[in-house]
Specification:
This protein is about 75% helix and about 0% strand. It has about 400 residues and is mainly alpha-helical.
Length: about 400
């Protein structure tokens, strides 16, 4: 994939990274509003059901995104993704003004639209940093996911403050305005040339399809297991701390915000460490921290312990997924946009499954027990990484025109 230009325009860079921020805010807006949904009378099972459409439509969007990007270009494809994100924000707003009987169907449509927007944006958002900064592709991708994490971390704080002031409707309305602006900016400021490849196939002609190789499925499995971890931390954290640890809604929301803020800080740190240490080594270290975080969250009793344990969880989750995307793209350089889309599909599939499955499990296990049991996810991801994902040799990578993973 060719770089955009020798020195990309500042407007292009700002558009790409602001788009990541907007998508982060949109995705987190639904779990960040969990306390409002509970106040409206939603059961745990109904709340978990909200994430089922997100699974299917994120996968569908991720499968469609690479083809769309090749057909109409990266900029127009990202603009199209923001059409769906705008619809998601509008439906989130509508859920607060319709009757209770209609609120659940409206929210289900909203998470479907959110999944579509996030899935469609995967190919352009994960491909553009490497085109903007071809000599610093790993750091540029980590930077993009860091900015997206800023959206994840600020969303719960913003939602909690607006709920406290009884101005929650400003959240979806503000998101709708932001996503409309990004829809226009992406169309005007980003390239419309695509990847200069035939639109008939999401894979590169003549190259071996990644899905025929065990390494591809190892990366998919690692992404899904990571997503189980992230979804358990993020989508059920507020309800766990509020219902089981009896913390105030504001404190519970603060713990989720701390999780995302620590995730952002961890990605900033890793963007520096990846220039000095092996990406694979850093990637394999993070599941060990996730195991510790699950046990710490399950044992937390006070507000300070909850905040500390969720901060450890954020640091542990910080770089695993972007490093998964980077390592998988390096392993299959000819299919980088398609690979990044499949990793996003795996991520959202895992987050959605974990978020839904916990609802029915509440009848048999406490949330603290579920958090303790969830330590098996990063354990399995670590084993997969150690046994199935091998470093790419420098000569092999170089022969394909990419840098070997560090």
């Amino acid at each position: 994939m060719p770089p955009l230009e020798e020195r990309p325009a500042l407007l292009t860079i700002v558009t790409v990274y602001l788009a990541a921020l907007a998508q982060g805010l949109t995705v987190v807006s639904f779990p960040a509003s969990a306390a409002l949904f509970k106040a409206q009378g939603f059961t745990d099972a109904e709340y978990g059901t909200l994430f089922l459409p997100q699974i299917g439509f994120t996968v569908l969007g991720s499968l469609t995104g690479p083809h769309l990007a090749r057909r109409i270009g990266l900029g127009p494809a990202l603009s199209t993704a923001f059409v769906a994100s705008t619809l998601a924000a509008f439906l989130l707003y509508q859920s607060s003004v319709v009757t209770h009987a209609l609120a659940l169907p409206v929210l289900l449509a909203g998470t479907a639209a959110m999944g579509s927007g996030f899935g469609l944006s995967a190919a352009p958002l994960n491909a553009l940093p490497a085109r903007l900064f071809p000599n610093r592709a790993d750091s540029a991708l980590l930077g993009l996911h860091t900015v997206m994490g800023v959206g994840f971390s600020s969303g719960p704080l913003l939602a909690g403050e607006l709920l406290h002031r009884k101005l929650w409707q400003a959240l979806p309305l503000g998101l709708a305005l932001l996503t409309i602006c990004m829809m226009i900016a992406a169309r005007l400021a980003l390239p419309g040339d695509g990847a200069r490849q035939p639109a008939s196939s999401p894979l590169v002609p003549g190259a071996s399809p990644p899905f025929r190789e065990p390494a591809f499925w190892a990366f998919v499995a690692a992404a899904v297991l990571y997503a189980f971890s992230e979804g358990t931390f993020s989508n059920w954290g507020i309800l766990y701390l509020h219902d089981e640890r009896h913390l105030a809604e504001s404190l519970a929301g603060s713990a989720l915000a701390v999780f995302w803020a620590s995730l952002v800080a961890g990605r900033l740190l890793l963007s520096l460490l990846v220039t000095r240490f092996s990406s694979r080594t850093l990637w394999l270290t993070l599941p060990v921290l996730m195991i510790s975080a699950f046990l710490a969250v399950a044992a937390a009793q006070s507000a300070s312990q909850a905040l500390l344990s969720f901060s450890v969880a954020g640091l542990a989750c910080s770089g695993f997924f972007p490093l998964t995307v980077a390592l998988a793209s390096t392993r299959f350089p000819a299919h980088a946009p398609w690979i990044s889309s499949m990793m996003i599909a795996a991520l959202m599939f895992g987050v959605g499954i974990a978020s839904f499955a916990i609802g029915p499990l509440r009848g048999a296990l406490s949330l603290s027990g579920i958090y303790r049991l969830s330590a098996v996810y990063p354990t399995l991801a670590l084993l997969i990484g150690v046994w199935f994902v091998r470093p790419v040799s420098a000569p092999t990578a170089a022969s394909k025109g990419v840098a070997a993973p560090r």
